[in-house]
Design brief:
Pfam families: TPMT (PF05724). With about 200 residues, this protein is α/β, with parallel strands linked by helices. The chain has helices at about 10-20, 30-35, 55-65, 75-85, 125-135, 160-170; strands at about 45-50, 70, 95, 110-115, 135-145, 175-180, 190-200. It contains 6 helices and 7 strands; from the N terminus they run ααβαβαββαβαββ. The protein has a 7-stranded mixed beta sheet with strand order 3-2-1-4-5-7-6. α3 links the parallel β1 (about 45-50) and β2.
Amino acid sequence: MQSDVELDANYWNARYVAGQTGWDAGAITPPLRDYFDQLSLPRTSKILIPGAGRGYEAEYLHTAGYNNVFVADIAPEALRDLQQRVPDFPAEHLLEQDFFTLPADSAYDLIVEQTFFCALNPSLRPTYAQQCAALLRSGGTLMGLLFDTVFSQPGPPFGGSRAEYESYFAPYFDFVHFSSAHNSIPPRQGRELFMCLKKK
Ligand SMILES: C[S@@+](CC[C@H](N)C(=O)[O-])C[C@H]1O[C@@H](n2cnc3c(N)ncnc32)[C@H](O)[C@@H]1O
Protein backbone atom coordinates (compact mmCIF):
# COMPACT_ATOMS: atom_id res chain seq x y z
CA MET A 1 0.00 0.00 0.00
CA GLN A 2 1.23 3.50 -0.87
CA SER A 3 0.58 6.78 0.90
CA ASP A 4 -2.09 9.02 -0.67
CA VAL A 5 -0.01 11.98 0.46
CA GLU A 6 3.29 12.95 -1.16
CA LEU A 7 5.94 12.01 1.44
CA ASP A 8 8.27 14.81 0.45
CA ALA A 9 10.33 17.43 2.32
CA ASN A 10 7.26 19.64 2.86
CA TYR A 11 5.35 16.77 4.42
CA TRP A 12 8.12 15.78 6.82
CA ASN A 13 9.23 19.27 7.70
CA ALA A 14 5.64 20.27 8.50
CA ARG A 15 5.42 17.33 10.91
CA TYR A 16 8.48 18.60 12.81
CA VAL A 17 7.16 22.17 12.84
CA ALA A 18 3.77 20.96 14.14
CA GLY A 19 5.37 18.66 16.70
CA GLN A 20 3.67 15.61 15.14
CA THR A 21 6.64 13.34 15.66
CA GLY A 22 5.22 10.28 17.37
CA TRP A 23 8.12 8.17 16.04
CA ASP A 24 10.68 10.24 17.94
CA ALA A 25 11.93 8.28 20.96
CA GLY A 26 13.53 11.41 22.44
CA ALA A 27 16.84 9.63 22.99
CA ILE A 28 18.95 6.88 21.51
CA THR A 29 17.11 3.54 21.74
CA PRO A 30 18.65 0.55 23.61
CA PRO A 31 19.25 -1.71 20.57
CA LEU A 32 21.31 0.96 18.83
CA ARG A 33 23.04 2.12 22.02
CA ASP A 34 24.08 -1.46 22.89
CA TYR A 35 25.33 -2.07 19.37
CA PHE A 36 27.35 1.16 19.36
CA ASP A 37 28.81 0.38 22.79
CA GLN A 38 30.38 -2.83 21.47
CA LEU A 39 31.41 -1.37 18.11
CA SER A 40 35.11 -1.77 17.40
CA LEU A 41 35.41 0.46 14.35
CA PRO A 42 38.11 3.12 14.15
CA ARG A 43 36.81 6.52 15.31
CA THR A 44 37.45 7.88 11.80
CA SER A 45 35.04 5.38 10.20
CA LYS A 46 32.55 6.99 7.87
CA ILE A 47 29.05 6.49 9.22
CA LEU A 48 25.73 7.50 7.63
CA ILE A 49 22.38 7.85 9.35
CA PRO A 50 19.77 8.41 6.65
CA GLY A 51 16.37 9.84 7.60
CA ALA A 52 17.98 10.58 10.94
CA GLY A 53 15.37 13.06 12.14
CA ARG A 54 16.62 14.74 15.30
CA GLY A 55 19.63 12.44 15.18
CA TYR A 56 20.06 11.05 18.70
CA GLU A 57 22.19 8.24 17.26
CA ALA A 58 24.45 10.77 15.55
CA GLU A 59 24.77 12.65 18.84
CA TYR A 60 25.65 9.44 20.69
CA LEU A 61 28.31 8.43 18.19
CA HIS A 62 29.72 11.95 18.04
CA THR A 63 29.97 12.09 21.83
CA ALA A 64 31.69 8.68 21.79
CA GLY A 65 34.39 10.20 19.59
CA TYR A 66 33.33 9.11 16.10
CA ASN A 67 34.30 12.13 14.04
CA ASN A 68 33.06 11.11 10.61
CA VAL A 69 29.33 10.72 11.24
CA PHE A 70 26.91 12.06 8.61
CA VAL A 71 23.18 12.49 8.80
CA ALA A 72 20.97 12.91 5.74
CA ASP A 73 17.44 14.18 6.06
CA ILE A 74 15.10 16.15 3.82
CA ALA A 75 13.50 18.02 6.75
CA PRO A 76 15.57 21.11 7.66
CA GLU A 77 13.74 21.46 10.96
CA ALA A 78 15.04 18.08 12.12
CA LEU A 79 18.61 18.97 11.22
CA ARG A 80 18.27 22.32 12.96
CA ASP A 81 17.25 20.53 16.15
CA LEU A 82 20.39 18.37 16.06
CA GLN A 83 22.59 21.38 15.32
CA GLN A 84 21.15 23.31 18.26
CA ARG A 85 21.42 20.39 20.68
CA VAL A 86 24.95 19.48 19.58
CA PRO A 87 26.61 22.72 18.44
CA ASP A 88 29.99 21.06 17.86
CA PHE A 89 28.54 18.46 15.47
CA PRO A 90 30.22 19.36 12.13
CA ALA A 91 27.77 21.47 10.11
CA GLU A 92 29.14 19.98 6.88
CA HIS A 93 28.06 16.53 8.09
CA LEU A 94 24.41 17.62 8.25
CA LEU A 95 23.20 16.75 4.76
CA GLU A 96 19.85 18.24 3.86
CA GLN A 97 19.49 15.81 1.02
CA ASP A 98 17.32 13.05 -0.35
CA PHE A 99 18.89 9.73 0.59
CA PHE A 100 18.22 8.41 -2.90
CA THR A 101 20.33 11.15 -4.50
CA LEU A 102 23.41 10.72 -2.30
CA PRO A 103 26.43 9.87 -4.47
CA ALA A 104 26.79 6.10 -4.74
CA ASP A 105 30.50 6.16 -4.01
CA SER A 106 30.95 3.14 -1.70
CA ALA A 107 32.35 5.55 0.87
CA TYR A 108 30.63 4.47 4.07
CA ASP A 109 31.73 1.85 6.57
CA LEU A 110 28.42 1.77 8.40
CA ILE A 111 24.81 2.79 7.73
CA VAL A 112 22.36 3.02 10.63
CA GLU A 113 18.63 2.44 10.16
CA GLN A 114 15.82 3.42 12.49
CA THR A 115 12.27 4.30 11.37
CA PHE A 116 13.49 5.62 8.02
CA PHE A 117 12.79 2.51 5.93
CA CYS A 118 9.24 2.30 7.37
CA ALA A 119 8.64 5.98 6.57
CA LEU A 120 9.21 5.47 2.85
CA ASN A 121 6.57 4.40 0.40
CA PRO A 122 7.00 0.61 0.19
CA SER A 123 7.58 0.77 -3.57
CA LEU A 124 10.97 2.33 -2.71
CA ARG A 125 12.16 -0.63 -0.64
CA PRO A 126 14.12 -2.43 -3.38
CA THR A 127 15.81 0.88 -4.26
CA TYR A 128 16.57 1.52 -0.57
CA ALA A 129 18.46 -1.79 -0.38
CA GLN A 130 20.28 -1.06 -3.64
CA GLN A 131 21.22 2.48 -2.51
CA CYS A 132 22.50 1.27 0.87
CA ALA A 133 24.70 -1.22 -0.96
CA ALA A 134 25.93 1.48 -3.34
CA LEU A 135 26.85 3.79 -0.46
CA LEU A 136 28.75 1.15 1.52
CA ARG A 137 32.24 -0.11 0.88
CA SER A 138 32.64 -3.82 0.29
CA GLY A 139 32.31 -5.50 3.70
CA GLY A 140 30.55 -2.42 5.12
CA THR A 141 27.63 -2.83 7.49
CA LEU A 142 23.97 -1.89 7.35
CA MET A 143 22.50 -2.23 10.81
CA GLY A 144 19.42 -1.11 12.69
CA LEU A 145 15.79 -1.87 13.30
CA LEU A 146 12.89 -2.74 11.01
CA PHE A 147 9.27 -3.20 12.02
CA ASP A 148 8.09 -6.79 12.10
CA THR A 149 4.40 -6.02 12.13
CA VAL A 150 1.55 -4.88 9.95
CA PHE A 151 -0.06 -1.59 10.98
CA SER A 152 -3.83 -1.25 10.86
CA GLN A 153 -3.64 2.49 10.09
CA PRO A 154 -2.54 3.78 6.69
CA GLY A 155 1.21 4.58 6.70
CA PRO A 156 3.62 5.99 7.37
CA PRO A 157 4.78 3.95 9.15
CA PHE A 158 4.53 1.02 6.76
CA GLY A 159 5.13 -2.40 8.25
CA GLY A 160 6.34 -5.66 6.81
CA SER A 161 7.89 -9.02 7.56
CA ARG A 162 11.30 -10.56 7.71
CA ALA A 163 10.65 -12.70 4.62
CA GLU A 164 9.66 -9.63 2.63
CA TYR A 165 12.71 -7.66 3.75
CA GLU A 166 15.09 -10.54 3.06
CA SER A 167 14.07 -10.48 -0.58
CA TYR A 168 15.25 -6.87 -0.90
CA PHE A 169 18.56 -7.24 0.90
CA ALA A 170 19.69 -10.72 -0.17
CA PRO A 171 21.05 -9.63 -3.58
CA TYR A 172 23.57 -7.28 -1.96
CA PHE A 173 24.16 -8.38 1.64
CA ASP A 174 25.13 -11.35 3.80
CA PHE A 175 22.93 -11.67 6.86
CA VAL A 176 24.96 -11.51 10.06
CA HIS A 177 21.95 -11.03 12.29
CA PHE A 178 18.28 -10.63 11.39
CA SER A 179 15.94 -11.61 14.19
CA SER A 180 13.59 -10.22 16.84
CA ALA A 181 15.06 -7.40 18.87
CA HIS A 182 15.14 -8.22 22.59
CA ASN A 183 15.58 -4.69 23.93
CA SER A 184 13.16 -2.52 21.94
CA ILE A 185 11.56 0.50 23.57
CA PRO A 186 8.23 -0.54 25.19
CA PRO A 187 5.85 0.63 22.41
CA ARG A 188 7.84 -1.41 19.88
CA GLN A 189 8.49 -4.50 21.98
CA GLY A 190 7.99 -7.76 20.05
CA ARG A 191 7.46 -5.77 16.86
CA GLU A 192 11.02 -5.07 15.73
CA LEU A 193 13.75 -6.96 13.94
CA PHE A 194 17.36 -6.22 14.72
CA MET A 195 19.28 -6.22 11.46
CA CYS A 196 23.02 -6.44 10.90
CA LEU A 197 23.97 -7.04 7.27
CA LYS A 198 27.36 -7.09 5.62
CA LYS A 199 27.78 -5.87 2.06
CA LYS A 200 28.93 -8.66 -0.26
C1 LIG B 1 9.67 8.59 10.77
S1 LIG B 1 10.94 9.78 10.70
C2 LIG B 1 12.25 8.98 11.59
C3 LIG B 1 13.31 9.92 12.08
C4 LIG B 1 14.41 9.28 12.94
N1 LIG B 1 15.05 8.17 12.25
C5 LIG B 1 13.87 8.82 14.26
O1 LIG B 1 13.90 7.61 14.55
O2 LIG B 1 13.43 9.67 15.04
C6 LIG B 1 11.48 9.64 9.02
C7 LIG B 1 12.55 10.65 8.66
O3 LIG B 1 12.98 10.42 7.34
C8 LIG B 1 13.14 11.66 6.67
N2 LIG B 1 13.02 11.37 5.23
C9 LIG B 1 11.94 10.93 4.56
N3 LIG B 1 12.22 10.69 3.28
C10 LIG B 1 13.54 10.97 3.13
C11 LIG B 1 14.44 10.89 2.04
N4 LIG B 1 14.05 10.47 0.82
N5 LIG B 1 15.73 11.21 2.24
C12 LIG B 1 16.17 11.63 3.48
N6 LIG B 1 15.34 11.73 4.53
C13 LIG B 1 14.06 11.40 4.37
C14 LIG B 1 12.06 12.54 7.25
O4 LIG B 1 12.31 13.89 7.10
C15 LIG B 1 12.06 12.10 8.72
O5 LIG B 1 12.98 12.87 9.46
